[in-house]
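Hey, I was hoping to borrow your eyes for a little while. I've been puzzling over a protein and I'd love to understand its fold better. The fold is given in discrete form, as structure tokens running alongside the sequence. I'd be grateful if you could look everything over and explain what you see. No rush at all, and the record is pasted right below.
>
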Amino acid sequence: LNACKNAIHYVKTAIAQSLVGIGNGNGPINHFHPLRWSPYQGKTFIQAVKESLPTGLWSDFIDHPFVRGIADGTLPTESFTYYLKQDYLYLQHYARAAALAAYKSDTMNTVGANASIVLHITKESQLHLEYCARWGITKEDVLSTPESVFNSAYSRYVLDKGQSGDLLDLKISMAPCLLGYGEIGLKLFNDPATKKDGNPYWDWICQYAADDFQEAVHVGMQELEVLAETYVSTSEARFRDVCKTFEQATRLEVMFWEMGLRLC
């Protein structure tokens, strides 16, 4: 099994590192890519970054008491509704970050892709307001809610990384949100211990387990692998810096859950 996994990874990496724009068809395969040293040799970039996290930090995020409360339906309603309001405010900053990614992109394709993300978030924010309404939260309630200091810390960290760094700095600071919610959604959806009947949060779980969100996770992971080839390449120091950004963003995700529990 490991041999098959290694072989698949070898071919995928070979294709990714092949020369582009030569002829037609599937293109050449770079069979010499194992000879090119990488700070995450033998692993995908995402796998290596996640493994660089301090022990238990990722679990602190995806298995947080807030998440467990969603899974068994015991999360206090006031915690969830406060989280929903703050999440809408965060979405506005997330859209700004995606717009910044479009500005930092160096090809028309990537500019367009990130612009499409902004439009998608705009639609998602409207759906979010409709979801809030089902919980008795009006748009006025959301917009009049003061932004939590935890929310401000997280969103400004992402925007600062994007403004002061390159496209990978920005995207890796946004990655824990995308990857974590995708993992949480699938995990809770497929876990027999998750309460389905009578769980007021079951539809929230389904949103993040849905095919469209999981596809967004897949596309985001592919983009990060490509960006790492450009912006990390063979630099171990650069890889360590990127890992630190991912770690800090993960810690801020944990604090976002804490914000919901503490109502602060």
User: Anything to note?
Assistant: The longest helix spans residues 77-104. Confidence is low (pLDDT under 50) at residues 15-23. The chain has two domains: 1-36, 45-262. DSSP finds twelve helices and no strands in the chain.
